[in-house]
């Protein structure tokens, strides 16, 4: 039986990440970066596409697993007739090269353990040449090289294009494996001490999580979400990837399979707010700086997403040799949505930079120049139709959320000039733009007969992004149009108590066959909107349910199927975890953040 998405836990080193299943198998790992080609791709194929399993011989799923509190160090335990054993998995903060450390420890009795390593570079398609050198097993293929060793050394042998080891551990005994990647043309990197790496990782993560200012209800879930956001951060640049994976399906067996190993501008304000509110100003500043570098250039060429270092070209292609998670094809690498026009990103950039300024993050002269250039572009471009924040592939429309975010851009520009009159800018022009956009949205994007805003001008369809109208300040929460929109969205897009983004099977803008699950970030937005309109009891009940949808180690994917009761979409999803943090802060007040 194919694993479920929630069967996976995450380890990482803030430059890439691996997914570890309940069976002790590392089934996904891209080296050396999040967006590099995978060397373990069993997640999207089968064992021959690469994996590394360490488990007792004959064992299936583990008895239990958990992260060490406040860390990204994972413990997986098995109970067997011979005894019990623990495997501790981590990726230490790298010096030069990425390492995967796996420490096997006997807990009781004497257990026979087997390690099976199948490296398959280039998304599971390339079988490397294996050799022995200096006590290592060395795999080489083209630009990639990986070195495997154990401490103490255990015998290994090659079989079925894999590297195998079998050994016993008694109570208190340990065997550590280290897998290190480096470019094949370079000499072997320095050896890491696996046991010291474990101690250092535990101390570093604990020191980081101890900085969290949130001390309200569900603190463990909030801290786990913040750890996940930290793990999805590409440390050299401060960029935060949307997820660690590509092509995990939004519908089992469907075609809605996208690559999320890139950085989206739409996530910027909500992510920045979560980091700042919980006391992580250094990380917030790094994300803000990445945002400014990525957005620099011609405002007409502002993209909705960028690469980890701000790369603009993210060409989309399919990988035909991978069967897909649960036979969901195609498997896609890259993302063509990078070429879409989404006007809302201008509002998100302006909102983020305004929030950063208000929070006291250091400013740079060029930041305001960039904002002025964005506003000059929006002065005329805002009238265009666009693809909207959901990256639909059914053509451009005048999406209401996009226009609302244009209003946000103008509003934040006006607010900055009013607070800092020494800055240059077209105050009167931006006020006029703000008022004009507001009037048009209220006239063309609102259905008076149903008392709700709509997905786009003249449509009857709804969109969960409309729930953000009171949050961004476009209208106050007690405005009857806001209350009506919240109720209509919940009634028409609700499914099993959660919320879909929009009606994918009915909307003419979707442009794709099949459907999708409920969208977890949107469900958090619903909880926020209910709270803002005085329905806090309902909001907290929904929040409790959403927290319970996390898997056993606290991870959330992009979507959830309330009928089948399983997670859907790429994992772990930064947008879902940002939603959890922000909703906790909203529901439990500023006192929860210290």
Automatic annotation (TrEMBL):
It catalyses: alpha,alpha-trehalose + H2O = alpha-D-glucose + beta-D-glucose. Its cofactor is phosphate. Belongs to the glycosyl hydrolase 15 family. It comes from Streptomyces lincolnensis. GO terms for biological process: trehalose catabolic process. Coiled coil: none annotated. Residues 216-584 form the GH15-like domain. Residues 4-139 form the Trehalase-like N-terminal domain. Keywords: Carbohydrate metabolism, Glycosidase, Hydrolase. Its EC number is 3.2.1.28. Gene3D superfamilies: 1.50.10.10. Pfam families: Glyco_hydro_15, TREH_N. GO terms for molecular function: alpha,alpha-trehalase activity. This is Trehalase. Pathway: Glycan degradation; trehalose degradation; D-glucose from alpha,alpha-trehalose: step 1/1.
């Amino acid at each position: 039986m194919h694993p479920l998405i929630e069967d996976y836990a995450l380890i990482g080193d803030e430059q890439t990440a691996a997914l570890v299943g309940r069976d002790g198998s590392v089934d996904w790992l891209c080296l050396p970066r999040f967006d590099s080609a995978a060397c373990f791709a069993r997640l999207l194929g089968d064992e021959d596409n690469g994996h590394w399993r360490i488990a007792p011989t004959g064992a299936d799923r583990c008895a239990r697993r958990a992260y060490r509190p406040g860390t990204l160090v994972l413990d997986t335990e098995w109970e067997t007739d011979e005894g019990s054993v623990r495997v501790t998995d981590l990726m230490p903060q790298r010096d030069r090269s990425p390492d995967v450390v796996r420490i096997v420890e006997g807990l009781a009795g004497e257990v026979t353990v087997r390690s099976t390593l199948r490296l398959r570079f280039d998304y599971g398609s390339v079988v490397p040449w294996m050799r022995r050198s200096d006590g290592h097993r060395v795999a080489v293929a083209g630009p990639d090289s990986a070195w495997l060793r154990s401490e103490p050394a255990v015998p290994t042998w090659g079989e079925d294009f894999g590297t195998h080891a079998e050994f016993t551990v008694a109570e208190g005994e340990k065997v550590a494996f280290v897998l290190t990647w480096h470019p094949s043309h370079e000499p072997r990197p320095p050896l890491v001490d696996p046991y010291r790496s474990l101690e250092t990782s535990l101390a570093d993560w604990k020191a980081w999580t101890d900085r969290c200012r949130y001390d309200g209800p569900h603190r463990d879930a909030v801290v786990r979400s913040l750890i996940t956001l930290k793990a999805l951060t590409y440390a050299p640049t401060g960029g935060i990837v949307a997820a660690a994976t590509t092509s995990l399906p939004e519908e089992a067996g469907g075609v809605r399979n996208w690559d999320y190993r890139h950085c989206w501008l739409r996530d910027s304000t909500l992510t920045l707010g979560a980091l700042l509110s919980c006391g992580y100003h250094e990380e917030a500043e790094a994300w803000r700086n990445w945002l400014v570098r990525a957005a620099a250039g011609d405002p007409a060429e502002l993209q909705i997403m960028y690469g980890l270092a701000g790369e603009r070209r993210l060409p989309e292609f399919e990988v035909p040799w991978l069967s897909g998670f649960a036979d969901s094809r195609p498997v896609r690498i890259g993302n063509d949505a990078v070429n879409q026009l989404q006007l809302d990103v201008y509002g998100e950039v302006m909102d983020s930079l305004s929030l950063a300024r208000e929070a006291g993050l250091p400013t740079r002269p060029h930041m305001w120049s960039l904002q002025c250039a964005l506003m000059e572009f929006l002065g005329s471009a805002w009238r265009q139709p666009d693809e909207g924040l959901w990256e639909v592939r059914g053509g451009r429309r005048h999406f209401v959320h996009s226009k609302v975010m244009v209003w946000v851009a103008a509003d934040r520009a006006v607010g900055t000039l009013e607070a800092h009159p020494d800055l240059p800018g077209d105050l009167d022009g931006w006020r006029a733009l703000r008022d004009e956009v507001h009037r048009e949205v209220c006239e063309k994007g609102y259905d008076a007969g149903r008392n709700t805003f709509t997905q786009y001008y003249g449509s009857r369809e709804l969109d969960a992004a409309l729930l953000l109208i009171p949050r961004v300040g476009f209208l106050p929460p007690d405005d009857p149009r806001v209350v009506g929109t919240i109720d209509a969205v919940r009634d028409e897009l609700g499914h099993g108590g959660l919320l879909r983004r929009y009606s994918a099977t009915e909307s003419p803008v979707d442009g794709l066959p099949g459907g999708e699950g409920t969208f977890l970030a949107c469900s958090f937005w619903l909880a926020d909107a209910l709270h803002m309109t005085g329905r806090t009891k309902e909001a907290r009940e929904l929040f409790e349910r959403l927290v319970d949808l996390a898997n056993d180690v606290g991870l959330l994917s992009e979507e959830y199927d309330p009928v089948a009761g399983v997670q859907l979409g790429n994992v772990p999803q930064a947008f879902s975890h940002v939603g959890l943090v922000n909703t906790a802060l909203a529901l439990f007040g500023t006192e929860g953040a210290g």
